[in-house]
Amino acid sequence: MSSSDQENRQRNREIAENEAKREVVSNVRVSTWAIAVTVIAGVIVFGIAWAWFNR
């Protein structure tokens, strides 16, 4: 195997690692937004229910 092939494989591994890290960060960001939206919706529903039962 030539040196060029090994360099290409190493470069491809580094690219794959960077892409995996980027995907993890993106997934965490999306999950954080999903949790935040769910909590806000829950607070709104709780407030409406609370107001309904205490009228």
Characterize this entry briefly.
With 55 residues, the protein is mainly α. It is 93% helix and 0% strand.
Question: Keyphrases for this structure?
Answer:
rod-shaped, mainly alpha, 93% helix, single chain, 55 residues
How many E-type strands?
A: 0
**How much strand content do the residues show?**
under 5%
Helix residue percentage: over 70%
Shape: rod-shaped
Describe this structure in words.
93% of the residues lie in helices and 0% in strands. With 55 residues, the protein is mainly alpha-helical. It has one domain (1-55). The longest helix has 51 residues, at 3-53. The radius of gyration is 24 Å and the shape is rod-shaped.
List the helices and strands and how they pair.
Layout: H1 3-53
